[in-house]
Amino acid sequence: MYIRIFVFSLAFTSLLVYGHGDEKHDQQKSKSGEKQVNEYKVHYSHINESYQKNVKPIFQKACYNCHSQNVDYPWYYPIPGVQDLIDSDIEEAKKHLIFTGSYPFRGHGNPKSDLKAIKKVIQDGSMPPLRYQVMHWESFLNSEEKEKVYSWIESAESMLKEERE
Ligand code: HEC
User: Fold this and answer.
1) Measured from the CB, is residue 58 less than 6 Å from ligand 1?
2) Is the C or the N end of the chain the one with fewer CB within 10 Å?
3) How far is the CA of 121 from the centre of ligand 1 (A)?
4) Do 122 and 153 touch, CB atoms closer than 8 A?
5) How much distance in Å is there from the Cα of 42 to the middle of ligand 1?
6) Residue nearest (by alpha carbon) to ligand 1 atom 35
7) Phi, psi angle pair for 98, to nearest 5°
8) pLDDT tens readout for residues 121-131
9) Is 86 close to ligand 1, i.e. is its CB under 6 Å away?
């Protein structure tokens, strides 16, 4: 009988100790997780503010015809063969990134890896695609516009440096 009580109380105490310990740990974990999410939200809204002001007009001019819901179809769109090409470009582009609206963008990447991908395509001159630039001279980014995009990305990346890609 005494042994039973002893074992029982031992089990109970250890349950209390471990139970309590676990709870505290979980609470701390979820608190720091929440704090992190809130920090990101603040960062995202700062990044978006600067995007709207400095970068969106550039993207509207150079990227929206494929990476958005507001496609302005060209006069030659109805030409047989051309239509398919344009449609598949738009479909493909939107799978990668949709710039309509605000940062973070919709697409298959995450907010941080999107920035890296944008920097890369502008640096290597692959976006807008050359076949598009030839028909749309206004979509060509001059060095001042490129600088604006780079400095936006640079400050965004420094805000998100802790975030995974
Ligand atoms: C004529 C249509 C068109 C325009 C205009 C265009 N893109 Fe794209 N974009 C595409 C297509 C198609 C793809 C997917 C295939 C590929 O990577 O070539 C793509 C893919 C991308 C990707 C993903 C690349 C990767 O490695 O995942 C980025 C980033 C991108 N575009 C940025 C831009 C930016 C920034 C602009 C404007 C400066 C722009 N695009 C303008 C058609 C376009």
Assistant:
1) no
2) N
3) 8
4) no
5) 28
6) 118
7) -120, 115
8) 999 999 999 98
9) no
